Amino acid sequence: MRALFSVWDKERVLPLAQRVHAWGGEIWASAGTARTLAEQGIPVQSVETLTGFSELLGGRVKTLHPAIFAGILARPSESGPPLTWDMVVVEVYPFQREAQDWIDLIDIGGVSLLRAAAKNYESVWVVAGPDLYMDALHALETHKGIPPLEVRYRFAAQTFALIAAYDTRIAQGFLAQPTYAEELRYGENPHQRAFFLGDKPRLLSGKPLSYNNLLDLSVGHRIVMPWDMPACAILKHTQPCGAAYAESPELAYQNALAGDPIAAYGGVVVCNFPITASWAHLTKGHFIEVLAAPSFTPDAVEWLHHHKTITLVEWPTFQPTAWEVRSALGGLLWQTPHIQEERDMEVRWAARLLKSMYSNAVVITAEGQLVAAAGGQTSRIEAVRLAIERAKHRSFPPEKLLLASDGFFPFTDSLELIHAAGIRRVAVPPGGKRQADIEAFAQKCDICLIFLEYRHFRH
Hints:
The chain is of the alpha/beta class. The protein folds into 3 domains: 2-176, Methylglyoxal synthase-like domain (Rossmann fold); 195-314, AICAR transformylase, duplication domain (Cytidine Deaminase, domain 2, 3-Layer(aba) Sandwich), CATH 3.40.140.20; 324-451, Cytidine Deaminase, domain 2. It has 15 helices and 20 strands. Helix 1 (14-22) runs parallel beside helix 6 (133-143), helix 5 (109-119) packs antiparallel against helix 7 and helix 13 (380-391) packs parallel to helix 14 (413-420). The longest helix has 28 residues, at 149-176.
């Protein structure tokens, strides 16, 4: 039994090293670990005699050598390495972001040894740090040496879990202080610091983009880009207070502004078409904080610059990220982006708006316009009630309206309100114990019930 030791806390590994020696094991170790084991009377050989070099770069390179890794990764049928290892015992540096030298506490060689040994668990027994020392001692006593395959498999699985947790702590450490990100004016509130790491939209004029501006722009971009027709969204607090698509850029903006002209004051306007001077003239009297578009004509920029206090930005050419990341409970949550699209164009537009609202969310649309919306409600029927009440202030006949919900209706009470309001088209995700009752009620009341392909929650 040939074992390789390379650990951070040398004292804690002594009982395990003593038992390995007692069972006739040949022990090799990195320089620091070898010195401690030798001082305790445990026969040990330093890997320096195998690699032919001492520690490099102040100890940052000790075990990264082909002679060591080939001996770990070698299979029984392969020859070539001067030595092969039956057991690898490694404890990585205890990473702490609070430490002054936290970058130096990111372990490279130790993690690499663990990954290699865990990968070759069929030939190598890996013991990843002090939490597994007692289990390893028990396995040595029980099996009188190297344990069988099923035990090595369990240790390998625990090793990969440890590595994953270790890398997560490092990622959290980097994100806790985004040294290489651009500092923004402030965060959600003026007393908060904020940073951005990525490709920001190109600033043409106005104040630097703030934390809240970037959040609004992100939501607006998801609504209007890409879309086959001119589309415009007006955002307040990361939710659309107006949105529309139309045959022309001018009509798209006018219809979006009509959604809620009061809420649109001081909003972020996001367009998927170039901004021209004739289009810019339409914004007279509308206070806009940020206007974003793929491009601006020079005369549009000149007119906006002289007539408005406004921030103008052009979209960068960027692809959607593979993962969405946010913080929770002191950790990080990852998920794939919500980019699924519905098939029907009008339903697809309603779904895009739902994805930009907070759940529970309901939107009412007509002829490509956002007529009314209610998001962030704790009950779905309340979202329906609010959206219907807001839609009464618009001039659309009820039969032209489409009401869409980001989640299924648990009861028929929402449909009862919808029916009483005269709305006859409803889009909702399927699901719920009472779906049959929902379908029966819709059929009885002559409501066209459209089942969305996806749920569209946003928390």
